[in-house]
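thread: overnight batch results

M.L. [08:02]
morning all. the overnight job finished for the chain we discussed friday. pasting input first so we're all looking at the same thing
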Amino acid sequence: MLLKQVSVFLENRSGRLTEVTAALAEHRINIAAQCVAETSDFGMLRMLVSDAELALRVLRERGFSVQLTDVLCLTTPNTPGALHNALQVLSGAGIGIDYMYAFAIGDHAFVALCTTDLPRSMELLLRHDHRLLEGEAIGSS
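M.L. [08:03]
and the structure it wrote out:
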């Protein structure tokens, strides 16, 4: 139930993100979710993609600094309070959130989470009847 997230360190200059998306498009790698955190000098692009291993290889060949990171992808109803309920399970167990990003489609919301204890987070969320997205759902390896 852990997904492989592709994390890319980017110089904060015009066109750099386009270079990443071009490389992925050339290899028919779909981006299912992404988040960019930036400062004035650099940015961190985090993505859930259809083939994380291929993305890692392709981007490294193009000179990008890339790594794979395990994350959970919580799926909740797209309703007020649904995310709160899941986060309450984690915080109640003393588990912190390193970062997260989310998207919603129709009645469902999807939240990529990196926590201070991924295995325990997964176990707690499942025990409390929360759903986690399987890697195959986005084609993530």
